[in-house]
Amino acid sequence: MSTPATATRLRSFGTSIFAEITQLATEHGAVNLSQGFPDFDSPEFLKQAARHAIIVGNNQYARTQGMPRLNEAIAGWFRRFGGRPVDPHDEITVTSGCTEALAACCLGLLEPGDEVVVFEPYYDAYLPDLAMAGAVPRFVTLHAETDGSFAIQEDELRAAFGARTRAVILNTPHNPTGKVFSREELAMIAALCIEHDAIVIADEVYERLTYDPDKPHISIATLPGMAERTVVLSSLGKTFSVTGWKIGWAIAPPHLTAGVRAAHQFLTYATSTPLQHAAADALSGVKAQAYVTELTALYADRRRFLCDELRDLGFGVNEPEGTYFIMADHTAISERLGLSGDIEFCRWLTTEAGVATIPPSVFYTNKAEGERLLRFAFCKRQKTLYAAIWRMRRALT
Length: 397
Ligand SMILES: Cc1ncc(COP(=O)(O)O)c(C=O)c1O
Prior knowledge:
The protein has helices at 8-11, 17-27, 44-55, 68-80, 97-109, 126-133, 154-160, 183-195, 254-267, 273-284, 286-313, 331-337, 341-353, 382-396; strands at 31-32, 92-95, 115-120, 136-141, 143-144, 150-151, 165-171, 199-203, 230-235, 248-251, 316-317, 325-329, 355-356, 373-377. It is an alpha/beta fold. The protein has two domains: 8-42 and 289-396, Aspartate Aminotransferase, domain 1 (Alpha-Beta Complex), CATH 3.90.1150.10; 60-285, Type I PLP-dependent aspartate aminotransferase-like (Major domain) (Aspartate Aminotransferase, domain 2). It has a seven-stranded mixed β-sheet with strand order 2-10-9-8-7-3-4, with helices on both faces. It has a three-stranded antiparallel β-sheet with strand order 11-12-14. A two-stranded parallel sheet has the order 1-13. α5 crosses α9 and α11 packs parallel to α14. The radius of gyration is 21 Å and the shape is globular. Pyridoxal-5'-phosphate is lined by residues 36, 97-99, 123, 171, 175, 203, 205, 235, 237, 243, 246, 248.
């Protein structure tokens, strides 16, 4: 058969950069700071809860919108950590990770031809999700400033909104920049959404991973007039170091929840029953609170360590306000080595130094914005970070 079998709407996306770098890293035995998942084990109390849920027989299909006790736990969690009071059964849908929640929002709430404002650099699922829904992205760049922060330009944001705007995809804390959107920035986005009657698909998977007390995570759903037009998405993966569990959720008022569920029931129908039981324990127990506090403190240390070491190696680095990623400017080093652009430097670092990272230009339509940067993930054991720094030091000095 000569015609490609992949549907036209997905053909341009090809293989994800994560697969390519992972393969290169494996071939060269590289220390992997590319993909954002912990290389340490998940908390014991959660593994025990999952084991227990299977053994006592929670193994058949769950309720499509989520096991009641998990929906209740999510409602409590959201309210406790800066969200709003929500009805657990009418306003929460449990999904297979935030990934499914994103797809369900796009497929269940957007019409073909709808325009959606997307901040770049963007998380890699957003564009394929919009393509599957037939929606059209309108990009707004988070510009890398000389002080290492990432900023929105108000005129560019305003220009991205128009008569066909139906939604904004907003990720805060933001992957890959580590930016935590300020209240002023959220208010600017909210005002434009209200003016254009647009909804917000708020991807908040890093909601608990923030490091600066002056820059807490704020859910846009809590701003005046926004609860009725926001779907808040999150998941268990980053907060509890269980990225492989794929337990996520979408929180929205009933009229938006109806759209999310319309797609969710045919995407997966329901999410893993025993893991939903364990997730309910995670979100409601005392141990869970202690775990999140410890994890955030540990990540704060790793962030500081990696930033200091990268700076010492000659990278331009600013400490991220949230997530577990650092964006580092490699120009001083790559120019010295005669390498150009993030992809070439990333390949060199993987094959010659033995450290895998992510070239962020793949997260921009305007590639030039990301070419002088590299993304490092610090959700790793301290010994992994030591090994990465030791290898880079050997190759670069
Ligand atoms: C910004 C962002 N959104 C969504 C996801 C996917 O979350 P999940 O693993 O819960 O599907 C990720 C995972 O890396 C992410 O970084």
